[in-house]
Amino acid sequence: MTINTLAKGGWYREQMTCFRKMEKVIVAMQDPDMGMKMRNQRLLITVIPHAMTGRDVIDWLIQKYNICEEEALHVGGMLVRYGYIYPLKEPRSLVLRADETPYRFQTPYFWTSTRWPASELDYAIYLAKKNIRKQGELMEYEKERYSLLHKRINHTWDFVVMQAREQLRASKQRRKADRIVLECQEQAYWLINRPPPGAHNVLDMGLEKPNNFSLRVTLNSDYYKREIESCRRALGRNRVKSSICLEGFVKFSEQYQNHDPIMQGCLPSNPWISDDTAHWTMNSEIVPVPTRLRVERWSFSFMELLNDPIGRREFMTYLEKEFSAENLCFWQACEDIRHGESSKIIQKVEDVYKNFLAPGAARWVNIDSKTMDKTLEGIKHPHRFVMDDAQLHIYFLMKKDSYPRYLKSDLYKNMLAKAIVPQETKKSVFPFMRRQRHSSPSPAQAVTQVTEEDGRAMGAGKAGTNSAAGSHV
Amino acid sequence: MCQHVESTEINCLLCKNVRLLICLCSPFRCRSLPAQRKIYMRSPPIPEMATQEVQLNETLAHLKTESETLKSKLEEERAKLHDVELHQVAEKVEGLGQFVMKTRRTLKGHGNKVLCMDWCKDKRRIVSSSQDGKVIVWDAFTTNKEHAVTMPCTWVMACAYAPSGCAVACGGLDNKCSVYPLSLDKNENLAAKKKSVAMHTNYLSACSFTNSDMQILTSSGDGTCALWDVESGQLLQSFHGHAADVLCLDLAPSETGNTFVSGGCDKKANVWDMRSGQCIQSFETHESDINSVRYYPSGDAFASGSDDATCRLYDLRADREVAIYSKESIIFGVSSVDFSLSGRLLFGGYNDYTINVWDVLKGTRVSILFGHENRVSTLRVSPDGTAFCTGSWDHTLRIWA
Question: Given this structure, which CATH class describes domain A120-193?
């Protein structure tokens, strides 16, 4: 046996946590004071004590957790699916019904968590019991599994049959009501731990995360030394008061609320709801006239302006007027180095040096001497991040100086004035007049047309638009 | 001793050739760790080695204690500047009204559990991957399948769309991350142009392109994250610090674009500097595996979702956890989280097949969405915030708006 078959790693931990929580709910349900009221239920001619109806379960959950009916039905439904509550009338239907259907609590002996995973031996004994008790009682899939098990654990088969006979003998000595209850409970346990083919397997845990905490990374002295080092660094860092940070979230959410389609809807309509792609067409990467909301967003932060291709273009136009366009060009070139192909780095760094940093360069950028020296030194051994300090310097220069002035400029104000505010589309009056869902050209297609068009780096590899084909508005 | 004792020889990952006596009732634990030495060895240890071992044990225990002391000191320092709770600050904010979101599209076509999905920048295309090795590119708006690739491995747990929209990356049990350029020629076999980029020593749990098609960030079951150059397949930087599988990662939307956060089975969420490979901040408040991490839109905070059935919000400037999103009636773990565009709403996909919508500021649950018939494994909000997509073990993907 290898470690992986024995190691109860990820999913064991995960599942046991859920089991424990569900068990707490179950225990609370059976609390003598705050739990549910139970009553006797008639099952054919026998009376089963301590049973409850589906309705009882749901009402109790609604009251205890202050949730709605739908959610209570869902939570109760999970309890049934995991076998903590089983239905008396239709045992194979593991569903919680919000009516008078009777249910019962599963005994802790048969909780999935008690013996998990369920063993093959126990399953063989169960099937053997069923087979002996009443010939032909096994279902098709059970017969198949029975014979498979017979082959697999053949060496212990005598033990299996012996155990099955013993248990049947012991159960005959019980009262009929108890016997029926025990049979029901056992059946419920196996319906969950060995579900019929096609049925939902609630215990399907998916991929075992084969790692178990300390196995993968040795908790040796190196590990602890690293932990200590990072703790020391963390202790030394500057922190900001909560009141200031949290205020920031409130402000951010307020500022962006109108721009959040899920919160406020979007104009003219949300394409997913109305099947109309006008919203996307109007907000494509490049449009003749951008929307109002979009232009407004440029004023939220410098990053918003730069991230929008139209915004960036407008800003470039403004900088050209101010004769400081080389700053933005330099920044773009640096971005290209940082995110571009490794093989082109050396060439690109050389180009940047020639165009922007060399004394007497055509578009010389104004960097402080300390950063300039450091950058020039780094250029001797060019790497991806060699321009970082210079790029950051120019970025903050633009952000603190040019950007605020741009927002106050006529260029921006005009943009805002002529921006489109789309009309909200009224919902279709006739539901059967479904709008056509038009497909759009894939970005992969668009790029073969655009490619070398835009020499100025607009961020590496940005594709074209999807405005062309879909215009049916 | 219980009846389930089985004496067997096992190859321990740490020290080979050790016979271990195991009781099957309790979780398996390799007993060769120095701190828990209870090994049954074939031959007694050599005397000199024994004294060395004892010294090593003492140093290790000493280091462990020092580490733990520093950690509690750190928590104390963090708590000092915590002068107000988020929901208190949010008291003045208007509450959210009735919330109605429905499934607007259902994407059927995967033959097995959907494990991961990602949006294309064009706001309507998505890529999804599943347990049977299939990776499908859809136009979610029309629900048409545009491309399909069959990976050579099962359990494709990670997939990502390239920023240009011209390629997808995916990986899983093959321990690799491969990039497939999306060809428009329907006859062309996409698998032929496949490019193997990342190589880990265990399963790939998540991958993401950085700002361009040229670099990919990956996280793996081997406990590390790594940054790769797509063109050459070269490893640019590796990130060590997690003590167990790393399950998720997210890139920061910051101005300087240099950090990312990762979450793992060691219950830790680490923030890394992509340039230096160093872990700059670490948070350890979850009680179980962290399945998903996602930055708040401003980049000043991130949310995490865990098997402990809670989502938490961590502020990077305050350097602490600032909110917990949980409810007593929510029992099952969170598999994935994402924010709405304004950051006001946090969507969580849960293992009990539901989606819970949280008011980030007030800390309350706004809505619970039903629809999937098995656990929700992945959830992402679209790039323009008009909808979000969920993928589930019920083989379908749903678009909600």
Answer: mainly alpha
